[in-house]
């Protein structure tokens, strides 16, 4: 259950757990997905690049991920 006005708060991921900093749900939580869809409605490649950056950061946080030089 989201807290009141949760959709107006910054729903950004924490590291290294990739949980929402505000609501604690796995990121992207529902408000974050809605915000991303709204922001990148006319720019699907931009959304892909944005999520790719988060994915790369999440991979780097994994303890057994080989480092790329
Ligand atoms: Zn959230």
Characteristics:
single chain; 69 residues; mainly alpha; 0% strand; flat; binds zinc ion
Structure, explained:
The protein has a domain at 17-60. It starts with 29 loop residues before the first helix and ends in an 8-residue tail after the last helix. Helix content is 41%, strand content 0%. It has 2 helices and no strands. The longest helix is centred in the C-terminal third of the chain and has 18 residues, at 44-61. The protein has helices at residues 30-39, 44-61. It has 69 residues and is mainly alpha-helical. The site of zinc ion has 8 residues, from helix 1.
The oligomerization state is single chain
What overall geometry do the principal axes of the alpha carbons give? Answer: flat
Number of strands: 0
Bound molecules: zinc ion
As a percent range, the share of strand residues is: under 5%
Mean pLDDT: 86
Residue share in helix: 40-55%
Total count of helical runs of at least 4 residues: 2
Show unreliable segments: none
Topology as H/E string?
Answer: HH
User: Main sheet?
Assistant: none
- Cα Rg: 14 Å
Question: What is the terminal-to-terminal distance?
Answer: 42 Å
Q: Which structural class fits the helix and strand makeup?
A: mainly alpha
């Amino acid at each position: 259950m989201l807290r009141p006005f949760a959709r107006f708060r910054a729903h950004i991921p924490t590291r290294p757990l990739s949980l929402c900093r505000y609501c604690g749900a796995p990121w992207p939580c529902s408000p974050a997905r809605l915000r991303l869809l709204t922001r990148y409605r006319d720019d699907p490649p931009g959304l892909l690049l944005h999520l790719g950056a988060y994915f790369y950061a999440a991979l780097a946080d994994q303890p057994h991920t080989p480092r790329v030089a």
